[in-house]
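Objective 1b of the project was to move from sequence-level analysis to a structural picture of ligand recognition. The entry below was assembled by the postdoctoral researcher (A.K.) and checked by the PI before modelling. It contains the amino acid sequence of the target and the SMILES of the bound compound, pyridoxal-5'-phosphate.
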Amino acid sequence: MAVDINWGELGFGYIKTPYRFVAEYKNGKWNEGGLTGDDKLVISECAGVLQYAQTAFEGLKAYTTKDGRVVTFRPDLNAERMAQSAARLEMPVLPEGMFLRAVEQVVAANRDHVPPYGSGATLYLRPYMFGSSPVIGVKPAEEYQFRLFATPVGPYFKGGVKPLTIRVCDFDRAAPHGTGHIKAGLNYAMSLHAIVDAHEKGFDENMYLDAGTRTFVEETGGANFLFVTKDGKVVTPKSDSILPSITRRSLCYVAEKYLGLTVEHRPVKLEEVYGFAECGLCGTAAVISPVGKIVDHGREICLPSGMDKMGEVTKKLYDTLTGIQMGTIEAPDGWLHEIK
Ligand SMILES: *Cc1c(COP(=O)(O)O)cnc(C)c1O
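Corresponding predicted holo structure:
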């Protein structure tokens, strides 16, 4: 290990690594793109991203498996989702091949920043794309940059798993027919006030409801819900304004094919949640964070799994998916993308 990092003590913050990937879109086409050591960029003061928030991003991680391979998890799905985000924001779609090449080149070039197996830490990868040319009348930019950098992040559950307390939020995250289903920076900009307010009031996260009727569960600011019913079924909310989490989709596959559970992907009324046994938040960072309590204004939903451990089914899902990711349980074809 060439770098001097205490992997177990790392938090989730930006640490500059030596190499990142940059590609530019100009005159209707992408250039070849490649690695650079320069972490700074110069763009017009009037760039589309700065004026009208024309930007989308992705998040995935590279890590070391038990048998010593450096891999990323299903990066093809990140490429696909980024293409969907780009199309919805009138940005040029990046070819999947270039996205995967960027992942491979950045991880390979920063290989000494990939944490060892067992440390719990990972090398987080942040691909993103933005309008870089000047735009003052509202329209899509003409030039774009795609970039991908890497930053090492620490174990998510430092000092053990602590179930979260979340609140039903009075702000909305995404409108029907809006941009909730894509990974756009703008969805996060507007969630910042809600999360700061939630933290000030002692909650870990916001549960957003559907903006149309405020009766169905959508997701949090950055993770999808997964529920377990009292008879052991896995239920995940379905809505056109939920971001399709790769972790949630992978967990549902694992639930069905590895654990033989029944999985329902359907609209979920908040009222129903009062009768559920377990609740978790799914996303790349934590895989699943258990939720112990949901505060719905004056009422409380205390999940039977309680405030000091993951629910039983949640734990099985977590152990199975992390086992697949770490190479101790056989992965479905194509899930682990090895970096040579
Ligand atoms: C990124 C994100 C998720 C989690 O997606 P993963 O692919 O599992 O990391 C969930 N919700 C929102 C709003 C997100 O932006």
